[in-house]
Amino acid sequence: MSTKEKIKEEVDILEQKAHQHEIVLHNDEVNTFDFVIEALISVCEHTLEQAEQCTMLVHYKGKCTVKSGTYKDLEPRCSKLLHLGLSAELV
Fold first, then answer.
1. Of these four, 20, 31, 55, 91, which has the most CB atoms within 10 Å of its CB?
2. Spatial CB neighbours of 54, under 8 Å, sequence gap ≥ 6
3. In this model, does residue 18 exceed pLDDT 70?
4. CB of 80 within 8 A of CB of 43?
5. Spatial distance between the Cα atoms of 33 and 54, rounded to a whole number of angstroms
6. pLDDT the model gives residue 4
7. Cα separation of 55 and 13, whole Å?
8. How many Å apart are CA 90 and CA 10, to the nearest integer?
9. What is the rounded distance in angstroms from the CA atom of residue 65 to the CA atom of residue 53?
10. Percent of the residues in the chain that have a pLDDT greater than 90, as a whole number
């Protein structure tokens, strides 16, 4: 592989990372563990284990990234979480 090809590959990787966004779920004192778990399974397509782990992290750490991807994919998911009454942001 030439130096030019290596540089192009590195730039492509950096561009992919730059286009990544995250949904961050924040802790609240309103929603139950079961409700948050079900929401993550439904909206973010988590497995039960993933949803449980994220819910525990949110509870004990105050927040957790629950989904990464493109803005186009994450924006409607974040909106659904907000509509369900969860505290989430798209970063």
1. 55
2. 25, 40, 46, 64, 66
3. no
4. yes
5. 10
6. 73
7. 31
8. 26
9. 11
10. 78
